[in-house]
Amino acid sequence: MTSRRTFLRDAAVGLGAIAVPFGNADASTWESFFQQHFREMDAAEKKRVVERLEGEYAKKYKKEIKVGTEKAIPGVLYGYGLDLSRCIGCRRCVYACVDENNQSKDPQVHWITVLRFKKGEKWADLEESEKYYNPAQVPEPGYFYMPVQCQQCENPPCVRACPTQATWKEPDGIVVVDYDWCIGCRYCMAACPYGARRFNWGEPARKSEDINPTTHYLGNRPRPRGVVEKCTFCIQRVRNGRYPACVEACPVGARKFGNLLDPESEIRYLIEHKRVFRLKEDLNTNPKFYYFFAYGR
Predict the structure, then answer these.
(1) How far apart are CA 223 and CA 240, in angstroms?
(2) How far apart, in Å, do the first and last CA atoms of the chain sit?
(3) Class of domain 71-297
């Protein structure tokens, strides 16, 4: 596995500089910098890292924040379905995601983007769609809406693009990011054809009382400035038998979630019985995010 230190050392040869925590850096900072890759850590090492992070978060946010490391559940491959005939463009999924996943409010970071299209258009061009609409009431006559987030690709181009292997696909199909190994190069953002990754340009701002204290190391734990983040299907919830926050928040039941390997699951039923499609299928990314129409509107 490529060493982050090796990559940074080689990069320094070409760039002439390297962001090393000299000066007044404390032991915790050095420990974080030289931390093993998550997939290389044993249980004892993970425990030490979690204890360090929980201590740092308690000091910063003045509250207890738990960092989980739950593994993928055997025999589970997560899939997501979104009924475009039901979606009303209310963005409640967006706000639920922000609250659940500790996304920055200043600068504002959203893992879900709801796009607006005019009905009757021949093509649904994601790049030319409307992201910033603000009507008095939704749904609006003559429009339909398409929420877009990480598609959790089975063949994710972002993973291949990452030079430090800070992002990878877990056995349950969730594409994750180790924020302590992300160097902020944003190659993964350039590689993602869905525009589903976000970069923290500034120090993420979130009030202590707004922090969700139930987190996962590879998911919604507080992030530092200068790293990439994305949807993880609410890994801290789904690996504990719960639905993603956006599924629960949808007021019209447009969002579906389940195990693709379970022939009795709701997600398998809709794939087999509804008119489903996946975004940019021609790119061979094989998304596990399915759009469908339950009925016409």
Answers:
(1) 22
(2) 50
(3) alpha beta
